[in-house]
Amino acid sequence: LDSYGILATGRTAESPSVRAVNDEMEGLRVGSVMLPAIFLGIAALIINIVLRRQIANERTLIGTLRALGCSKGLIVRHYLAAGAWLGIIGSAAGILCGFALQAQYCALYEQFYSFPSIQPAIYSDIIVIAAIIGMAFTAGGAALPALDAAKLNPAVAMRPPPPEIGKRIFIDRFESIWKRLPFRWKMIFRHIVRNPFRSGVSIGATFISTAIIFMTINMFDALDYLMAHEFKKMMAQDLTLTMHFGIDERGVSEIQGLPSVAMVETQFVAACDFINGPRRRRLGVIGLPRDARLQCPIDSQGRRIVIPDAGLVLSRKLAEVLDIAPGDAVRLKAMTGERREVVAPVTAVVDTYLGVSAYAEKDWLARLFGETGTVNAALVSTGGGDQTELLREISRRPMISGVLERSRAYQIMQETFGQLMGLMILTTIVIAGLIAFGTVYNMTRVSVSEREREIGTLRVLGFSTKDVSAIFTGESILLNAVGVGLGMFGGIGFSALIIRLYNQEMYRFPLVITPSQFIYTALALVAIVFFAQRLVIRMIRSFRWLDALKIKE
Asked: What is the pTM of this model?
């Protein structure tokens, strides 16, 4: 098509807008697999523990039914049905919540990507798959307890269960430490060590919840850092003007004479194809002056990158896409002018977080493509002055094809990108909080139901409700403190993993760790544990401890 005046051709799939949407869809696929797998796995473990305790309470009934001729299969189906019904109810509630979230996401995507229309819809295949996955996890959590219930011998099951093994624990062997521990803490340590599976599930659930909450808070800070890096540190101009065609010094002088203009910095932007063997990308090389002040690439530590007299500075993501390292050479095919095809060396790689970019010294780049003496972009600083009259004058210049207001672009990115990320992050925090709350509450309830006679004995011996509650509260605090401590480190690992998974051409997140992230995460978990413990304490206060000491026939 060259002879017909076509300057450039490209596949639809290679356009920036299509690539941006594809990157977002890939991010959704990652999130739709990783997070549900974590949450459903924790839910399955909780169901496993709760059903085990229920079977322990019903062991005499199970033994009686087995003695009367009920088959093992009937017992297994009964407890599997309990898990399946939990899955049906939970899946139904989740699907309804999913419809509400779908409407919110569609509205944000329509705004963020300027889709002509994207309306919520019902997809029967997705509903069926979601329901099957939910029921599979809950039934899986109930499977082992159901099989163990079926294995109970009728003669053994009809007798009271054997008492818990009372062997010494490892802390007990350090007598100098053990003797100094209060009686309450001795009971707490013994119960934790003698129930390793349940203790591990409690720590694991708190670990996961803490890590996910930390990760989501970290994403907020990463987004703020990304915005500041791109719009405040790398850019100092108020307006970016692009030209229909190259202008000379007289055109630059005209821009400098416009109202409120304090400083003008010119650029030469060359649209071209980057070619390295089979790898190819199309974008503009930004030619900067040697003493660039209004726009200059910076490294991850915030230091300005010195633009070399000859050679290219590439963003790290572009270098990865083209498989190029500093010292290599890349072929450039210009899309305008003489449409030269040249070879240019890569001298440095710089970290950027929005899109991909390439930089070079302005005069060297112009000579490379035979465009000496012209510029096609200008950066304007108003020094904080009013831009109304300036924008009016710019609109009257036919040579200026486009204007980008840095402050407005920053505001739009914060509003749209922030809303989209905010909804995703809020949803994740709520679900992680529910997992933490459900785990703390259920584990403590199971512990209380197992130790009914112990609670009654303590009350008979003169312990108050407050003293008894302190035992269960102390156990929960200790387990959750371990889970929160480990979860902080897990959150750093989760954040690093998410950054690797979301390493896309459209945007990338830096790993930013701040003290406030640890503080906010800890406060969130403290509030969740406190609320769950208040409900358990209320249950202990209403506990009929005298009935627990009566001999059950």
From this structure: 0.75
